[in-house]
Amino acid sequence: MGIYIEKKDFTEAIMDVMKASDYQNSLNTFFREHGADGYVFQPDCIASVIRLLNVALGTGDKEDLITRFCFDLDFGRRKKSGALTAEDGTDLSLSTPEELYDYLVCRN
Questions:
Q1: Share of the chain above pLDDT 90, in %
Q2: How many domains does the structure of the chain reveal?
Q3: DSSP assignment, residue 79?
Q4: Neighbours of 62 (CB within 10 A)
């Protein structure tokens, strides 16, 4: 299966997911700091967008690197050795959605 998404579209989708995630975290922090117990649950399509990006890449993300980039590395903002590794075990230093896209596309 081929790749059905351009780099620009992929990057914009990841950035939209990041903005939605940041907004949710900020809102929950605000409520917590002002005495609301727990989190405010709101509808979100983050998992759906990531799943669609996986589908658009065909078999390009069988290790679920998109999800791990978004959440384990906080969209590349928090570098963590060993968080993302290639199939051969080497550490992947990805800090932007563009770098993630290039890795996913170029290895196939």
A1: 29
A2: 1
A3: -
A4: 11
Helix axes 97-106, 7-33, angle to 10 degrees: 140
Amino acid at 2: G
> Dihedrals φ, ψ of 85, to 5°?
-130, 150
Please give the full DSSP string across 22-68, using - where no structure is assigned: HHHHHHHHHHHHTT--S-------HHHHHHHHHHHTTTTTTT-HHHH
Task: Quickly tell me which residue has 């060993």 as its tokens.
Answer: 82
Residue 72 inside a domain? The answer is yes
- Residue 40 has what pLDDT? 63
Q: Is residue 2 one of the residues assigned to a domain?
A: no
Q: Is 30 left (phi over 0), alpha (psi -120 to 50) or beta?
A: alpha
What is the value of pTM for the model shown?
0.78
Calculate the alpha carbon distances from 59 to 76, 80, 104, 108 in Å: 22, 25, 9, 9
Q: Which residue has the tokens 């669609």?
A: 52
Q: How far apart are CA 91 and CA 101, in angstroms?
A: 16
